[in-house]
Amino acid sequence: MIKKLVLTGAAGRLGSYLREPLTQMAEELVSTDITDDIGALYEGETYVKADLSDLAAMTEVLQGADMVVHFGAIGDEAPFDDILQSNIIGAYNVWEAAHRNGVRRVVYASSVHAVGMHRIADNIGLDAPHRPDSYYGLSKCFAEDLGRMYWDKRGVESVHMRIFSCAQVVSPRSLSTWLSYDDLIRLVRAAVSAQTVGCSIVYGISNNDRAPVHNLGAGHIGYKPQDNAEQFAEKILAEAAPADPTDLAQMCIGGPFATIDLGESGVAQLTIIDDSKKT
Fold this sequence. Notes:
Shape: globular
Helix content: 25-40%
Family: Belongs to the NAD(P)-dependent epimerase/dehydratase family.
Structural class: alpha/beta
Largest sheet: 7 strands, parallel
Keywords: Lyase, NAD, Oxidoreductase
Order of helices and strands: EHEEHEHEHEHHEHH
Strand order of the largest sheet: 3-2-1-4-5-6-7
GO molecular function: dTDP-glucose 4,6-dehydratase activity; oxidoreductase activity
Organism: Shimia marina
CATH architecture: 3-Layer(aba) Sandwich
Number of strands: 7
Number of domains: 1
Distance between the termini: 24 Å
Strand content: 15-25%
Enzyme class: lyase
């Protein structure tokens, strides 16, 4: 069992599903975000309000930690200055604070949007070059390269989880891109518990029949997704409009992020049900 684990972005929808499982992997879980309160705490969990853009604050939060699970960031496309502070400077602060405190590993919530302009038909693997579809995706590319540099130069391990559609299945696209909450938990647990990872990238996606990518080369993490969106296919496809092969939002793995203007919300083009786990 890990002595001390830090979770950033604990107030977010995905963070809400990770808090309880992470308390089972550590003697102490320190959850952090910029909100004043995240509700009732689990046994072994404490909460610290801290801003990712404040290096001193992050250095203090990570003091004595063995690992950090970094989910804190703007989770959508936004104006570049906003992305810069939260996602880019925030990522640097986490890695630098990890280095200063001797933290062994950063488990990072990267995103499909780091490679979002690749076509679905290409069935890319983990060796596909960065091809971001937004400032948001660009920030994920930065953090992946940052993690590689901190591993090469300073020995800080990292696992970069390119998370796909971790939400309820409501569209034809999500039949291929779904990451169930249970598989999210399995992925994070694997990334935390793997013996050695160096600097690794893995796609955060369930075992979907229609998956647009393959995870070959990530077996050493030990991630074994068990859920499959095909169970929803009959209902979703019966209600869906006809496919449009000229629409980049349907042809690229980044979905609507492939067609939005830079700085404009991509999440606004999706139907995401806020089913955050309540404490």
